[in-house]
Structure formats: C-alpha cells, structure tokens
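re the bet — no i am not wrong, look at it urself. input seq straight from the record:
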Amino acid sequence: MPHEILTNEQMKTADDLAIASGIPGFKLMQHAGEAVAKRLLKSTESDVYQILCGPGNNGGDGFIVANHLKKERKEVHVYSMFPVSALGGDAKKAADKCAVKIQSLETFEPILDAVIVDALFGTGFRGDFTPEINDILDRIKSAGNKIIAVDIPSGVNGATGEAAKNSLKADITVTFARKKLGHCLYPGRGYCGKFDVADIGIRDSFIRKAGYIAYENHPDLWLPSFPRKTGSTHKYMCGSALINAAPEMTGATRMAATGCARMGAGITNVLSPQATYDIYRSTLPAHIITRPDNQDMSWIDKITAGLIGSGGISSSTFPDIQKCPYVIDADALAIMPDKLNPQCVITPHEGEFKRIQQFQSLSGTKVDMALEAAKLINAVVVLKGADTVVAHPDGRCVVNTHSSPYLATAGTGDVLAGMITGLLAQGVESFDAACMGVWIHGDCGHRLGAGLVATDITDIISQSLNGLLANA
C-alpha cells in the first residue's frame, strides 16, 4: 500500500506526467468517476443519489459518477453550480456526456435518505464560501444525509488542511492516487471521514518523479528495523536507558521510565535528585533502577540513550549529547543548545514549539514548520498533536494519522518520550525510533479508547507490540 503524501502541486505534476505518457486527462477523469461510483455502491444502500457539481474537474468527476449510478438503475439527481455552457475543458466534456438531466444548484433541496455526493470544490479551494453556497451547505447539514466527498470535502484546502467555516463533513472521502497534505493535517483531516484512495492510472513512477512532501506513518516504513529479541538475546544487548528524574512531578518520570522499559530497553535507570530519591525508590516498579545523583556515577558510561525534561528539570546543566542519543522533552526544550545532532529527538507540543526562540519566525503548514525546525537545530523534531509530524534534518518527514482523541489527557506525552527513549537505547535510528514510538503510542490509544489515562498506555504497550510483530 502506498504511503506518500503529496502537495497539490506535486499531484498536478503527477497528473501531467500521466497525460504526457499518453493517458488523456478525460480518461483519468473517467477512472476517477468510476472509482467514486464503485465506492458508493459498495458502502451505501440507498437507491437515491444527489450529486452536487462545481465548475472544475471535481464537478466533472461528479457528472461521470452520475452516469455509472444511472447504469445501475439508481435514482440520480445532478446539480451544477454553473450552466453547462459556462464550463470548460474536461468538465464540460463530462457534462455534455452526462446521461442525467443537469439542474441548477439553486434548485437543490435534500431528499430524505438520499446519499449526497460532494463534487463542488476540489483540493485547490481556499477562502470562504459565497452566501448562496453557505445556504446550500446549511440545508445539507440540517437534513443529515450521508455525504461522500469526491477527492476532498468542499471547503478544505488540499495544500494546507485549512477549512472554510462552513465546510462539509464527509462520511467517506474518495481521493485519487495518493492522499494530499490537506487530507492528513487538521482541521481538514477531521472533515474527511473514512478514506478510499483509488487507483486511476497514475503510475508509481509518476509519483516518484513528481515528488512527495511526506509519508503517512505506517509500520510498512519501519517494521523491518524494529528491534527483535531472539533466544540468544540478553539484557546487555538491549541497551541501558537513563531517565533524568523530575524534581517535583515524579509521576511524569515514572510514566516515562515505564514506557521506556516496556519498549524493550534492557535496563532502565532513573537518576534522581537526593530530595526525591526515596519517593522514586519506593514507587517505581522493581525492574527500574533508581539511582541518586550524589553517589558513584561510573555506571553512566554504559548508557545508550537518555531522556531529559519530562515533568521538569532538576538542573540547568545539559547532558553531553555527543555520547549517546537523547530525547529532549518539556522543560528541557527551554535550555537545550541551539544546535543538537541528528541522533537527538525533541518532542514539543505546538505550544512548546512556538515558545522555542529559534522557531518563532517559522510559518506555513505544520509539516513546513517541523521540517524547517529540524534543519535549524539539526535534530529530529516530533511536533505533537492530533496530526503529529516527525521531521529529520535531511528532509525525511512523516505525518501520523494513526492516533486517538482519547490521548488528549495529562501524561501521555511523558509516556511517548519514554517509549522513544527505549527504542533509541536499543540502537534504533532516531527518525525510525520517533516514527515507531508515535505510531505505537497512537495504536495504544485506539486499543484503549474512552476513559484512557496515561498510565493505561504502559499497560497495553505489550499488546500493541505483539500485534505488530505477529504481522511482521
């Protein structure tokens, strides 16, 4: 399954390459319309369809959908934003061939139990709707009909994920060849419903030549590199992790340390200030080693990855990031050096990201900002949120869509930081470790669902890992 995410410009280039190879643009439109019709017939039981067509190629797809549904003896109503005579290009050709009477969009009224096909505006939409379109969209929302979006829900900008105020929320979005950035970034992603990415004849070679801005995070990208234990594996082969303990918010450290251990680190060490050493020693599970920061530190030379910042920092002294990979979280983001190295991972949420001085002038999409930030500090950036973006200074980037809204609760970020640290400790490359940690963290959220609290995640990590490795 392909996982590339394209910008609007990259998708247009891929379209143009397909056309230049000898596939007429109208043939691509026919394939697109057929793909939408197939999904409609597969996923809806209605015999009545209302297709709303805009003036561009998105509307042209809609006219072709109508023909396929008509052949299946469905009751089909087609509405066009403009008269057929005002259309151009392939959209006009599709309208001329439409076997269903084309009515003015002004006459549209939702029919009870009809499925509405949204082919009004495509991925290039930006700005706001006219009052007339707003009125139609209000009627659709009031009626509560099932909505299938062609390529992208009307009002969502395919380039950025921005959405007009009155954008339609689709139950299903059928897009073509690959997802676009606006499908994967919020708020746009929240309007798309379930996805169907249809093959319309744009070959993979065209996608590679056109380029892509990111991948959608998926085990296909990193599962071959996931650390596996065999019969001869022992703990010293699985790394030794260091969790720098918070001076007051001890719960954050405990969650991070447990997440680290659950991800497979051979030894997990918590380095505690003297004032809270007894708290950590009495509350951490027996398999996590609590060490005071005022005693012999010779053991630290064996550390293979570290974490600083979760729950707070006990010192303004920053660890030596040249010795081993480090995850830098929360309060440590404020004291980190201007330049790190690509074996380091920073894990800010969007509020923390904006407070980092180097990043305050960055603009663009979340992907744009994460990529630029990664280059600025020369480290992997995990820009957290419902649409977490992982970016490497060499330009690699993923958008994580495998997430859960129930992760929006205190402490889940501490668990994630610990999970990534556990992977780094085992020798996983920093970008892969971040992608793995973010995906598995989201998978735990899916498995737990409503009522999730952060400590639940560490209890279910093993289920997610066993599910992953069973399918490897």
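see?? Residues 4-212 form a domain with the Rossmann fold fold (CATH 3.40.50.10260). told u. also The chain is about 35% helix and 15% strand. so pay up
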